[in-house]
Design goal:
Layout (H helix, E strand, L loop, with lengths): L11 E10 L6 E2 L2 H11 L8 E5 L10 E6 L2 E6 L2 H14 L4 E9 L5 E7 L7 H13 L4 E5 L1 E2 L2 E2 L8 H4 L3 E2 L3 E2 L6 E2 L4 E2 L4 H14 L2 E8 L4 H6 L28 H17 L4 E5 L6 H4 L2 H9 L8 H14 L4 E5 L12 E4 L3 H9 L3 E4 L2 H4 L21 H5 L9 E6 L7 H8 L2 H10 L6 H17 L8
Parallel strand pairs: 2-3, 3-5, 7-8, 7-20, 8-15, 15-16, 16-17, 17-18, 18-19, 19-20
Antiparallel strand pairs: 1-6, 4-5, 4-6, 9-10, 11-14, 12-13
Helix pairs in contact: 1-2, 3-5, 7-10
The protein binds ligand TNX.
Length: about 475
């Protein structure tokens, strides 16, 4: 393999001549928080301490930066925080060629503090062991955030102790879209599943050990048909029961605006923040058809009581209510960019998804923004059309198109979205997510010149590692 082909590309890298040889005696020493992980990921648990990890008081390294040297004397890693040591271990994993590590000097730190991937487990409930593995693969590329899309029209996956029907009823559907949504067909094959709070806590711990934070999303006030199926009083026409939705696409049914319904979502958030310690909690706000609110006397009363301009401003009101609730826990809300028009609460992170222009608009409006524009980061889209390509919502999102995205410098960071309508199995998720997530990782981590040919060469050199890990990526 070519020497020192790291992905994402480090800020500075010098390759010196020569190699360090790893043996059964080679060992790791370092702070308790990372030494076990380092031994495990490097497969080095010998009695020696050639691999020396240490924290130093050097603010210049930032929250995630590290300095790494490999010389005749061994490996020396220095970072200001444990996160930097963890990323250095991932670099060592990538640098390694069998039992040899090339002599290098690396000084590295990320361009953006938020480098993530959304995984949609609502459309298809992917098994928990796969979520653990997905987190491990994010960490390999120094992606530090898993955005877990836990609820949608087609399924509710988060156990809520106060409202057991959310998972008893809302986690199961009678069938699914068959073929592409545009064909208008559905099957009768039941699908369902959910994660217990205990399972999710374990996932959070597993991710934290790897340096990955998990931001949960409870999507409201649209994309909630599964919740309304469980508790019809949440909807705008409680007398007409709804099933958990089978078809992909957007349900017209949204939550009503009663205090009881807001209280319900607050109760859900109470349990959610107890499971997920990360500062941000995503409360949705995307694709909210307003027909039901426009036709609802209750919604019009709410508009009047709150002094809003019309039902279209209820989305902002809704988000502000939930954001205020999260603030009581010292948390911040995250929302999709639709909410910007009707007033985003202070401190909220806006996820710009409806194009690069929306990302830039939200930045100009002064928001904290995570860049997730569909035309560069929707990894559920196929790269190309072709007989060998599995079904996808759309196509044309090539590796180079992902790589070519340049987020504004002032965003929090960037994220690759893996919506799962057409990804019913972990194998298909891996096919879509890899290797394009590596391009997302490089956009989020590396500064300076973008050279796609160089990226492709380094990525190619890293593919044997993915092969060894058994990742079912789409070949270049
Ligand atoms: C739009 S992106 C959605 C999702 C779909 C996705 C499919 C967003 C905030 N909403 O519900 O899964 O498109 O690409």
């Amino acid at each position: 393999m070519s020497v020192a082909s790291l992905v994402p590309r480090p800020q500075t890298l010098r390759v010196l001549g020569g190699h360090l040889h790893l043996t059964a005696q080679t060992g790791v020493r370092g702070p308790a928080a990372v030494v076990g992980l380092a031994r495990e990921l490097l497969g080095l648990s010998g009695p020696g301490h050639e691999i020396d990890l240490a924290l130093v008081d050097d603010p210049g390294l930032g929250a995630e930066g590290y300095r790494l040297t490999v010389t005749d004397d061994g490996v020396r890693v220095r970072a200001a925080r444990a996160a930097g040591l963890r990323w250095a271990v991932q670099s060592l994993r990538q640098l390694r060629d069998g039992d040899r590590l090339p002599f290098v000097e690396i000084e590295d730190r990320p361009a953006y503090g938020w480098r993530g991937s959304l995984l949609d487990v609502a459309r298809w409930c992917h098994p928990l062991p796969f979520l653990r593995r997905y987190v491990e693969l994010l960490a390999l590329y120094k992606l530090n955030t898993l955005h877990l899309h836990l609820t949608d029209d087609q399924g509710w996956r988060f156990e809520v102790l106060k409202y057991p029907r959310l998972t008893e009823v809302g986690a199961f559907r009678a069938g699914s879209t068959a073929g592409h949504l545009s064909e208008g067909r559905a099957d009768d094959v039941p699908h369902g599943g959910f994660y217990t709070q205990r399972e999710l806590r374990e996932l959070v711990d597993h991710a934290a050990r790897l340096g990955v934070r998990i931001m949960p999303e409870i999507d409201t006030p649209g994309h909630v048909q599964a919740a309304i199926a469980a508790y019809p009083w949440l909807g705008n026409t409680p007398s007409r029961p709804l099933p958990v939705r089978r078809e992909w696409g957007i349900s017209r049914h949204i939550l009503n605006v009663s205090d009881r319904t807001v209280g319900f979502v607050e109760d859900v958030l109470d349990e959610l923040v107890d499971v997920f310690p990360f500062t941000y909690v995503h409360i949705g706000g995307d694709e909210v058809p307003l027909d039901e609110w426009a036709a609802s006397p209750q919604a019009h009363r709410r508009v009047a009581d709150e002094g809003l301009g019309g039902p279209e401003q209820l989305l902002g009101w809704w988000s502000r209510r939930l954001a205020r609730h999260l603030e009581r826990y010292g948390r911040r809300a995250a929302v999709w960019d639709e909410v910007v028009q009707s007033g985003v609460p202070h401190g909220t992170a806006v996820f710009g998804w409806r194009s690069v222009a929306q990302v830039e608009g939200a930045v100009r409006a002064g928001h904290r923004v995570v860049a997730a524009p569909y035309e560069h980061t929707y990894l559920d889209w196929a790269e190309t059309e072709g007989p060998r390509e599995p079904l996808a919502i759309d196509s044309g999102l090539t590796l180079s198109r992902v790589y070519g995205y340049r987020p504004p410098s002032t965003v929090l960071g960037v994220q690759g979205q893996v919506w799962s309508e057409y990804l019913p199995t972990p194998e298909l998720v891996e096919w879509r997510a890899f290797p394009r997530l590596a391009a997302i990782a490089e956009i989020g981590w590396s500064s300076g010149e973008r050279d796609f040919a160089d990226f492709r060469r380094r990525l190619t050199a890293q593919l044997p590692l993915l092969d060894r890990l058994g990742v079912g990526y789409r070949p270049l």
